[in-house]
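Mods, move this if it's the wrong board.
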Amino acid sequence: MSPNISDMGILNRSKNATHKFQMHERLMSFGDDSWIENEAGDKVYKSDGKAMRMRKTFILEDASGKNMAEIKERVLSVRDKMSLKLPDGRSATVHKKLIGIRDRYKVEMDGGDDLHAHGNIADHEYEIERDGDTIATVSKKWFRVRDTYGIEILDGEDDVLLLAVTICIDALSDE
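Not the wrong board. Structure tokens:
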């Protein structure tokens, strides 16, 4: 872990507590496993990129190997999309919006409030919002280590959902 992870992000300026994670750009390599660490440097989630599949697939597992989210590329659609499914049955579809010059992604939650991500997606400098309120911030500026970026999630939000959304956005932006 980089020494300044506890100081990361704009969400840290508010009085609300946050959860902070460190991710690696190589996380999106298919067939490779990559760990997501918390601010204490503990490996808390693993992204298992499934090789030899017709479409991009990731399984997000906790440290004990329990399936926390399944992420799949949606094939045969007009726009690139990824779907994610959580063990509790919740699901979402992530796709790039086709407006404006800045990168924007929409997360369509089945049976819930949609999320929006905007900013410099390619450089891992963006925010995820619900109803205009920032609930997560992704930034590479918090780390000196190459190919590493952080995600800071507002307390009370679903860490697994937002980490899975970040994986989807990263995979879609690499296409």
